[in-house]
Amino acid sequence: MQEIKDAMAQQYLLDCTIQVFPDELHLKTLEQILAACTQVQPDVDLKPIFKNLMERLAGYIHANPEAVPVEIDIFTLFRTHLQEVLEKACTPSEGGQVDIAGLLELQVAFLRFTVSLYPDREYYVDLIMTQTVDLLAKFPEEARSMSSTGVEAVVDLLAHPLSGGGNLKVLMSDCFPALMGYLSYSAQKQVATAMLEAALESNAFSNIEDVVHLETFLSFIKPLLRDLEDMPLTEDEDPEQLLEVQSNPNSNIEKPLGLRRQSKRFKFKVGRPGGGASI
């Protein structure tokens, strides 16, 4: 790869390698493929390369779980080489800019790939989230003024670990509130809605191991609650009507869970056999 200096040629070669050769070969030569990705020119867009490779490997491994050699640590290989890619991207050439949104999208692809292969390993999720927090910490100003694409990536990073049978205890990582802190109120509300939808769809409330896990989850969906002190009113909300709703629990005024302009209403029940509470 180092012999080829043209960025377009490098990207084309990598894409062809992934598309043409069988997935079994990709698995056996994974370290070499990933190493090649770290040696390309800065202008090469590695997002589609990594995403295609991850999607193909995930499909192959799900269909052939016994095909993964014991000596191949897929997660560690990807994490190690992606870390190198991130570090190089964070030190652009003179006059260049860091594509925060693009790097976040790369992290989303890695997270989705990891959760699909290792749904029970919360530690892997924490490592990816830590890697992401460290990335944003290097560019605090850019992180707080992210494009809509970057915001959507952060929303996905925060909500996706709860999908596909995810456990609420994954939220105990300090990285979740750290990432949330980079988002505006409206974006935090997006995260809260996405988390709630993901948790309901994956039935995450059926296997709560500790009430602390539930309390942590509820702290993330605070932006959906009506009585937050710092919650800005929307144009269609009457302050006097809102005050009546908050002060009079028996009021006839509708008070959905912060989702007036959305069509869905959320209701879930948690608790151990023989007891529980509806929220």
Quick structural summary:
With 279 residues, the protein is mostly helical. The chain is built from 13 helices and 2 strands; from the N terminus they run αααααααααααααββ.
Structure explained in plain terms:
The protein has 279 residues and is mainly α. Helices cover 56% and strands 1% of the residues. The protein contains 13 helices and two strands; from the N terminus they run αααααααααααααββ. The protein has a two-stranded antiparallel ribbon.
Helix and strand arrangement:
Elements: H1 7-20, H2 23-28, H3 30-37, H4 46-63, H5 74-89, H6 100-117, H7 122-137, H8 140-144, H9 148-159, H10 175-180, H11 185-201, H12 211-220, H13 239-247, E1 269-270, E2 277-278
Antiparallel strand pairs: 1-2
Work out the radius of gyration: 22 Å
Give the neighbour order of strands across the main sheet.
1-2
Principal-axis shape: globular
The biggest beta sheet is recorded as: 2 strands, antiparallel
**Mean pLDDT figure:** 82
Task: Count the DSSP helices.
Answer: 13
Structural class: mainly alpha
User: What share of residues are in beta strands?
Assistant: under 5%
Terminal-residue CA separation:
56 Å
Q: What are its keywords?
A:
two-stranded antiparallel ribbon, 13 helices, mainly alpha, 279 residues, 1% strand
